[in-house]
Specification:
single chain, Arc Repressor Mutant, subunit A, 18% strand, transferase, Rossmann fold, alpha/beta, 7-stranded mixed beta sheet, SAM-dependent_MTases_sf, Methyltransferase domain-containing protein, 384 residues, 42% helix, 3 domains
């Protein structure tokens, strides 16, 4: 261990006639102390083993992991507290207005933290989002954070218990269905809406059934974009259907976008009005059943084959897992493992499953370059 000493103790000086530092005039012959008392001696210890330990800590990226965890939670708190809505208004938002109704002490420190992190910038007691802050709080960014932290947060926090077997998914631990529906709906709308519209346009479809619709964002936006379109959204979660109906009414399409509590995999439970839909669409609804074996998925697809009469088509959108870190692929894989879901397949795996059914895949849609790696398979009954 090496030791280095610094002699920073205060010194006294004798001023002479004239101006001294800072424009302060001294009388000739008067002693003036730079400090009232002597500063302590600084002893700097150089411990190679300790230094290597902390260098390893930083090189491993642990500090960045901690910062990422806290900043992610802070961004969701920015939304939940209502502060983000205030920041999105035109012009900088004064601190008092931003913290109205909130804990002022905690809020002041929270604003400073976000400024240090480059999310906010402060000028004259007012705050606004930086360019980085705007990107971090985009709809898609917040939906992705909410998907993993809010919807699957209860699951990942119980990871040790699930791993040791002291907890079972579906019994002791569950994901948050409302958050899952809300955030998945945002991702679906941003990423998949153009694909569904393209598939429907190719068939001049005017009626859609949305399987596992969640809070209904996909069907609602499709109806908003096409005044001739009508549809029915089906989901097994009553709270999701209630939210979908409210949103549809608020968007002015409640008369054309209807929602019902029903089992997407059992057409016998579907309400009146589902007949005549040219397109039956399901995004991310089938792969969970791989947990019961490929035969279970084949069985479900054959159920749909029975109702695909005439020119009806089944449009199935499913993620491709490729076991890498692009687009959080490894994170997506992990939450499926923890929740005992079936693991999604790549397109070749899905085509092999379709080959065992009474359906045939005539077209495959996918988004180029960016976004979740999801394929949409256009399925019709096999021709006899």
């Amino acid at each position: 261990m090496c030791i280095r000493r610094h002699d920073d103790r205060g010194q006294r000086r004798r001023a002479v006639a004239g101006w001294c530092d800072g424009g302060l005039r001294f009388r000739k012959g008067v002693d003036v102390s730079v400090t009232d008392r002597a500063s302590p001696e600084v002893v700097e210890l150089w411990d190679g083993e300790r230094i290597r330990g902390w260098q390893d800590y930083h090189l491993a990226g642990v500090a960045d992991l901690i910062s990422a965890v806290n900043l992610s939670q802070a961004l969701l708190a920015l939304v939940g507290s209502g502060m983000l809505d205030r920041l999105r208004q035109d012009g900088p938002c004064p601190r008092d207005a931003l913290l109205d109704g909130l804990n002022p002490e905690v809020g002041a420190g929270f604003l400073r933290y976000l400024s240090v992190c480059g999310v906010l910038e402060e000028f004259g007691g007012a705050y606004r989002l930086t360019r980085r802050g705007t990107m971090l709080t985009s709809d898609i960014a917040l939906a992705r954070l909410g998907f993993y932290l809010e919807a699957y947060g209860p699951v990942t926090r119980a990871m040790t218990d699930l791993l040791t077997g002291s907890a079972r998914y579906g019994v002791d631990v569950t994901r948050a269905p409302a958050a899952l529906g809300r955030h998945s709906g945002t991702v679906s709308t941003v990423s998949y809406l153009p694909i569904v519209r393209r598939a429907m346009a190719g068939r001049s479809a005017a009626r859609l059934i949305d399987l596992g619709c969640g809070t209904g964002s996909l069907l609602i936006q499709l109806c908003q974009a096409d005044p001739e379109l009508t549809g029915v959204g089906l989901d097994i979660a009553p709270e999701a259907i209630a939210a979908a109906r409210e949103t549809a009414d608020r968007a002015g399409v409640g008369d054309r976008a209807r929602f019902a509590v029903a089992d997407a995999f059992d057409p016998a439970t579907w309400p009146d009005g589902c007949d005549g839909a040219e397109v039956i669409c399901g995004i991310g609804v089938l792969h969970e059943h791989f947990r019961d074996g490929d035969g279970r998925v084949v069985e479900l697809l054959d159920r749909y084959a029975d109702i695909l009469t005439g020119d009806r088509v089944l449009l199935i959108g499913e993620p491709e897992v490729r076991y890498d870190n692009r687009e959080n692929d490894s994170d997506f894989f992990l939450v499926h493992v923890l929740t005992a879901q079936g693991i999604p397949r790549d397109r070749q795996g899905w085509l092999a499953v379709f080959g065992r059914t009474r359906l045939q895949c005539g077209r495959l849609y996918t988004s180029a370059v960016a976004g979740p790696r999801t394929c949409f398979y256009e399925l019709t009954p096999e021709k006899e």
